[in-house]
Design goal:
Elements lengths: L1 E4 L4 H11 L5 E4 L16 H19 L7 E12 L5 E2 L13 H11 L9 E11 L5 E12 L15 E3 L4 E2 L5 H7 L1 H14 L3
Amino acid sequence: MRIVFATGNKDKMKEIRDILGGLNAQILSMKEAGVEADVEENGSTFSENARIKADAIYELLRDKEPSAEDETIVLADDSGLEIDFLGGEPGIYSARYLGKDTPYTEKNSIILERLKGVKDEDRTARFVCAIAAALPGGKKLDTRGTMEGRIGYEIAGENGFGYDPIFFLPEYGKTSAEISPDEKNAISHRGKALRAMAELLRDNL
């Protein structure tokens, strides 16, 4: 059995392999599986976007390698940051927020500026991750995980990526870019969604 995760993000694939490594399956990125596609994620929620991507990549792999269909599971995720004071922004547009090619250092600086003067209790935010699985025979599985915190007051930390350097975790007194990868995997939105998916897949492999 092989699991193809619909991403080309190396940081994300490392986290995925760390968490799904206990499954009796080969874990490949989309690129490693020989598929290149830019799927339009036009859903209105993280879960809808993950499902759109998983189903689209599953169909592409099935067309490309019909004989491997019974041994292929496709996973896809959609994740992002929701900031309550900003009405849930950037939400499902997290990757495209302020422009797809805008560096996260700039995105993070602009978010901090938008929250300038906002009190701690009003800086609540969460990372959300939805994962969808497309299995042989048309079976579908879905999981969701969140990591609660708040927006800090400065960019801090070299670990992680994206919005991690401004996402403050009160229980650690650090941003999610300042804690270790193992600590982050234990509490992260993606970690929670991946572990839930791993449990579902164990019952279906």
